[in-house]
Amino acid sequence: MHDYDYGVIGVGSTGSMALRKIASASSSVLGIEGGMIGHDNSAVGGDTRLFRRVYREGAQFESLLESSLKGWSDLQARSGQRIFTETGMLSIFDDSSRDKDVLLGHAAAAGLRHEYLTPDDINSRFPQFRVGAHQAGIYDPQGGFIRTDVAVRAAVDLATEDGAEVKECSIVAAVESTRSGVVVTLSSGETISFGKVVLTCGARTVPLVAPQLAQHLAPKRVVMTWFGMDAPDDYRIGNFPIFGYRNSDSEQGVYGAPSIDGISVKVSGFIPNGPLELPQFQFDQTVSMEERCWAGAGANKVLQGLSDGPTRATAYADLYSSDHLPIIDWVDDYQRICLCSGFSGKGFKMAVGVGEVVADALLDSVPLDPAFNSVRFCRQ
Hints:
Blueprint: E1 4-9, H1 13-23, E2 29-32, E3 48-51, H2 62-79, E4 84-86, E5 89-94, H3 98-110, E6 115-117, H4 119-125, E7 135-140, E8 144-147, H5 148-161, E9 165-167, E10 172-177, E11 182-186, E12 191-199, H6 211-214, E13 217-229, E14 242-245, E15 254-257, E16 264-268, E17 274-275, H7 289-302, E18 306-321, E19 327-330, E20 337-341, H8 351-364
């Protein structure tokens, strides 16, 4: 006899969605969260995440993106909260780059609506951007942004209405699978038993998985920045899309979203993601003045009418896998622990779709996509 049939360890982006889906079928489910629900010392922080259907990372995510677009709309309707806002997504790149072929190929293969934009098209429709003659763009009309903390809290509220329980500020020290169930030990020494659990701890996952898998996972520090605007109306919802901006000499893409407060606009991606040590649950989210200056110089090369430096800058944690693909797989001998992590900066847009997939695996033993299994690391 278990304390609960199902457990969700880490009630953040994916965990909250899995909790909601499991609770719709079983009231014997407990979510365990190391902080408070929706806290920003995690991948939930940063106010918004981008959603797009025309996705450069590959067609293997198409079904998750499709189900997530429906899922965000359903969560919004069920909760009465404003969670997803469609703004369109503008991807800007060097016209000779591989990005153009990848994006156009994915859009064509999936039958997705899109527009190819020349530099003149971009300047006419979105004059906020600085683009050169060598650049071009693809506009995805289904793109938009997700309010991260609002989404997580809404999913948890619906789950608890259906009978789920949530244990906040409870740090998990160990997860052990046996033939008869799963035993979770908290840092306080308390133990809780489950039939099955899903492990969705983000950057805090590494100490809870086997060493042979942990070596392929690394927490990283992700810095996000917001800037003041000379003309706030230019960057409001309706006038400014979510965007991704890449050029030939950038190590990683720049991205952003419309202003949600009328005071600042999110423009991020200038600071390279770096390694992050997590000896404790909480970590220092401070961004140095040198990093802020670097971000300010970069932002004003991409967009017009921004403040010289960020008015807000914060570091967040995310978990990266060695091949930058997520792990969605059973990671114990008895198929009682489902790991769902390592999304490498890709996760929140697909969180509701992934949450449904892992919930179905726990509830009904629905097979998981082999593209995201952990066995692939054994072949490296």
